[in-house]
Design brief:
The protein is α+β, with helices and mostly antiparallel strands. The protein contains 11 helices and 18 strands. The strands form 5 sheets. It has a 6-stranded mixed beta sheet, with helices on both faces. Strands 1-6-5-12 form a 4-stranded mixed beta sheet, sandwiched between helices. Strand 5 and strand 6 form a beta hairpin. Helix 4 runs antiparallel to helix 8 and helix 6 runs antiparallel to helix 7.
């Protein structure tokens, strides 16, 4: 597959000999929501101009063409961001992915880790659970369904309600769906495919394939018989979160691996602060994606990135809005947005956090005594050092 290499927020032009009209139109049709695609015109010197906006990964266009969008942030730091954001620290994958230089290389390594652990669990026996079943049987099993039995007295079979001990449970169905999506990904390296397909065949023999969302992989209940599934489902959440819609080209179906860097930055900042406060300032708790509405207008709903709550005072002390951009100056829209969030959550402090220091910082107080500040969580160097500096300023 030919790859067009791009870097997020960096425009690149292509002559019509480098990128045909059919290919350019396909890029616009498939990925116009994630890229700024300018058609050939006098403005672009009769060339195609493509600018990625905060999305990175491998995006298939046709059977023999894909966009490889590279992040501005170092790959090693993106792996650390994933580690915090998706709770992958317990998975302990550092040594196996240490040599990854690209996102799709990391994707393949993580797919190998998931497949290996699933196969290891399958050798010990996949988790079984009890699910309710109803069937007409020649002998009684479980409880007789009296109503059905009386309504058909001349039949020789007995309608029964019982519980079946089976591997076809949600815990295994999540694994089957995730492996299916991985197997169709353009980012999966050839060496990893046999292992993924082997794990997929194993799980498919034990569980029905159903569609799941990333949210279905979290906040699940585990017991001593399936506590190791928690790590497997954390990995599944990562893959499902960053799997785009299926792209079809004739009879071929591919699944892109794409990362929304803005969302990753928001989640990373929230989870890093949560871990930091738990150790260094336990009086504070973090709520991420806190939903609020404006008075009685339920249709005017807002999703606040981070709310910092003081348990000792039992009140909110700050709202934090993460912005994955480095502006020359803070926009009035951003200030108005975070000020409204502070009013909705009845707290004085409102913070805009960026991945690097803005050229012009802000520290101002509104007439309503809301303090508006700009802070930064630098993604270029040591993340822990940058995080401690950010938390101290906050």
């Amino acid at each position: 597959m030919n790859r067009i290499e791009l870097t997020e927020y960096a425009p690149r032009t292509f002559t019509r000999s480098q990128l045909s009209d059919e290919q350019g139109e396909a890029i616009y049709r498939l990925w116009g929501s994630k890229l700024d695609v300018e058609f050939p015109s006098p403005k672009t010197m009769n060339a195609w101009r493509i600018t990625p906006h905060g999305w990175v990964g491998l995006l298939p266009v046709t059977r023999d063409l894909a966009l490889d969008i590279r992040p501005k942030v170092p790959i090693a730091n993106i792996l650390r961001m994933f580690e915090y954001a998706y709770g992958l620290r317990s998975v302990e994958f550092h040594k196996e992915v240490a040599g990854c230089a690209t996102l799709d290389g990391f994707y393949s390594k993580l797919a190998q880790i998931l497949s290996t652990r699933i196969l290891h669990r399958a050798r010990r026996g996949l988790y079984r659970g009890y699910i309710p079943a109803a069937e007409s049987l020649p002998a009684v099993r479980g409880r007789i369904d009296v109503r059905r039995h009386v309504s058909a007295p001349c039949t020789t079979s007995i309608p029964c309600d019982f519980e079946e001990h089976t591997t076809d449970v949600i815990e295994n169905q999540i694994l089957a769906w995730t492996l299916t999506r991985i197997a169709h990904s353009t980012s999966l390296a050839g060496s990893a495919r046999p292992l993924v397909r082997n794990a997929l065949r194993t799980v498919r023999n034990a569980a029905t394939e159903r569609t799941f969302r990333a949210a279905d992989c979290v906040d699940r209940l585990y017991n001593r018989l399936n506590d190791d599934y928690q790590q497997l489902h954390l990995l599944c959440r990562f893959f499902l979160e960053h799997t785009g819609p299926t792209v079809s080209d004739g009879e071929a179906h591919t699944v892109p691996f794409v990362v929304n860097m803005a969302r990753l930055f928001e989640l990373f900042v929230a989870e890093w602060l949560r871990a930091y406060f738990r150790t260094h300032a336990p009086r504070y708790t973090i709520r991420w994606q806190d939903h609020a509405s404006l008075g009685v207008h339920e249709h005017l709903r807002f999703s606040i990135d981070i709310v910092v709550h003081d348990r000792e005072l039992d009140r909110n002390v700050a709202v934090v809005d993460a912005k994955y951009k480095v502006p020359d100056r803070v926009s009035t829209d951003d200030v108005a947005q975070v000020t409204l969030y502070a009013q909705l959550r009845d707290c004085r402090n409102a913070v805009l956090v960026y991945p690097a220091m803005p050229k012009r910082v802000l520290d101002a107080t509104t007439p309503q005594q809301h303090r508006i500040r700009t802070l930064w969580f630098a993604l270029e160097g040591d993340l822990d050092e940058a995080g401690r500096r950010f938390a101290s300023e906050l």
